[in-house]
Amino acid sequence: MTVDFLVIGGGAAGMMAAHKAALYGMSVLLLEKNEETGKKLRITGKGRCNLTNDCDVPTLIAHIPTNGRFLYSAASQFSPSDTMRYFETYGLPVKTERGNRVFPVSDSAWDVCRVFAQNLKDCGVQVLHETVSELLVEQGRAAGVRCKSGKTFLASHVLIATGGLSYPGTGSTGDGYAWAKSVGHTIVPTRPSLVPLVTEERWPSEAMGLSLRNVILTLYDTVKKTTLFSEQGEMLFTHFGVSGPLVLSASAHIRPMEPDRYQLFVDLKPALSEKQLDARLLRDFSANSNRDFGNSLGALLPRKLIGAVVRLSGIPHDCKVHQITHEQRQGLVALLKKLPMTVRDFRPIEEAIVTSGGVDVREVSPKTMESKLLPGLYFAGEVLDLDAYTGGFNLQIAFSTAYAAAVAASGFGG
User: Fold this and answer.
1) In the chain, where are the structural domains located?
2) Burial of 121 (0-12, 13-18, 19+ CB in 10 A)
3) Which of left, alpha, beta for 306 (phi over 0: left; psi -120 to 50: alpha)?
4) pLDDT digit string (tens) for 382-401?
């Protein structure tokens, strides 16, 4: 079989590119090794699918710490507003929530996949479930692929949109890196991004399963003596350390990972100043003056946190509340406003939302996503060394790069 445009990978980038290329009149074949397309897309945003972020292009670029400037041309061709318009045009209304995050009104990632599936069908894209084993090159340009089944598919233009290494159960197993490397591309070493963090301290495991909402998490670099991240939101304690939206966002700022270099601080009571929190403590202590300190914090803290806070405060568990000194109380206030943890490591890349690293963007045209080393070969999405913070920015990378590749391959670019 010979087609104009062959797409390897039926994720967000692959499906967008296949649809756009077909709309521009190309014959398109999409190869997906899973039994269904969009497998990873279905679990994004906890199944709600954070499609993009309702922001302008400069703001998008500012939220892409790895090679953000490379995306400027592609994002200008297909911006967040274009993504929103795309889905609404094809019958999927969207809404904007906190942090300008954009979701389907239905809150269903499955609906996003249904839109793509219908679009591919309507414009004649052939979808085959094959596992690619080899990239074919003829006369100095990409010419197609050979599959494990023994089948060969030829094409004038080949797009690698196979994702990274995160969530390998969805098919993201890094296949595209090997094919890119086989034709001379440099692969920037991969590492997890938007990933839970392992802490040096063991006490978070005591609070495993506890979700804190409306707290402020701060990430501090002890080498550079600077705050890298500080936001209010939700986090989760686990058997290994911490996770949740705030932690995932903070993890993207850790470059490089060095044990003991990064500290996390949690403001458990951001709505109260230290003075207000001290007044609150005085009221609680007054009502529990004859109780042991360790039994006096039930109205202030979640039960799972009390043991750790008591130990970290240095105040004996069995100290009577009326015996607590002013200095001890001030220390407790400071602890509640700045509960400390030390980062030891990332969790494995398989648990990350996205992969940092991949095909070196210096070897790819920022306008067309075509390889500078092998004409006819294109890249889109997470296989490239591009990754962003949480908030819909990573899916926008997929959509923008996919669009740029499809338009360029069809000859409608420039």
Assistant:
1) 2-190+355-410, 196-346
2) exposed
3) alpha
4) 999 999 988 999 999 999 99
Task: Classify each residue of 80-98 as buried b or exposed e, where b means 16 or more C-beta atoms within 10 Å of its C-beta.
Answer: bebbbebbeeeebebeeee
Q: Which of 157, 159, 185, 220 is nearest to 357 (CA)?
A: 185
Rounded to 5°, the CA angle 365-368-369 comes to 60
- Give counts: helices (H), strands (E), the chain: 11, 18
End-to-end CA distance of the chain: 29
* Residues composing the chain: 414
Q: What is the Cα–Cα distance from 16 to 378, expressed in whole angstroms?
A: 14
CATH 3.50.50.60 fits 2-190+355-410, yes or no: yes
Q: What span, in angstroms and rounded, lies between the C-alpha atoms of 334 and 393?
A: 35
Buried b / exposed e along 158-170 (16+ C-beta atoms within 10 A): bbbbbbbbbbeeb
pTM as predicted: 0.87
Assess contact for 379 and 371: CB atoms under 8 A: yes
The residue to which tokens 């913070």 are assigned = 389
Distance between CA atoms of residues 45 and 352, nearest Å:
13
Task: Quick: pLDDT tens for 211-259.
Answer: 999 999 999 999 999 999 999 999 999 999 999 989 999 999 998 899 8
What is the residue whose two structure tokens read 């006096």?
A: 296
Q: Are 205 and 78 in contact (CB under 8 A)?
A: no
Residue with tokens 């609070």: 207
Confidence of residue 164 (pLDDT cuts 50, 70, 90): confident
What amino acid occupies position 321? V
Burial class (CB in 10 A: 0-12, 13-18, 19+), 256: exposed
The pair phi, psi for residue 234, each rounded to 5°, is -120, 145
Strand pairing report for 141-147 and 101-104: unpaired
Residue 65 burial by CB count (10 A; 0-12/13-18/19+): exposed, middle or buried? middle
Distance CA 231, CA 414 (A): 40
Q: Which two tokens stand for residue 305?
A: 């946190």
| 35 CB-contact burial (10 Å; exposed 0-12 / middle 13-18 / buried 19+) | exposed
